Amino acid sequence: MGEMAQRLSKQDWLIHGFDVLRSEGHTGLKADRMVKALGVSRGSFYWHFDDIKSFHAALIAAWRVQINEQVIAQLSQLPDAKDQIKALMVRVFTMSRPLERGIRIWAGVDPLVFQTLADVDGIRQSYAQALLQTIGLPPAIAQSRAQMMMWAYVGHALSTVDVDDPEACAADFTRILTTQVET
Fold it and tell me: Could you tell me which Gene3D superfamilies the record lists for this protein (predicted)?
């Protein structure tokens, strides 16, 4: 048991936390339950985290980087704003819904998670709005369409219905979002 505990890294604990969040939700994010599930001593957990609150803070911070900042950095590598929008919509319709759903439910009971989620949603919407403005949409139209993108994202995250053809759905949604406004 001690040998295993030595090998668990902070990242291992965070990965396990994401797995728990996907399968059980935030109520499963308890040190004793996770220690037992991993078959390690409590010392393994407390080697990396002062307490369960610090684990929760590290988990939500890792989610923010992994889900938000890394995705935007990857999409920004695409040369064309329209391609970025389509790739973003493909991600919307193929994302890990249990994790996003778990974060959103957790945000309803934890102020830190709520604030992090609000920040992330704001960054996501600003990114989408900037892309839409890059293709020539006026700021007010880009803002409302970016809001629609967020609603699609949140709606899909909380939905129990799968998208049959994410590529086709993303292409159609992209066409609708990027259609120029008649003046």
Answer: Tetracycline Repressor, domain 2
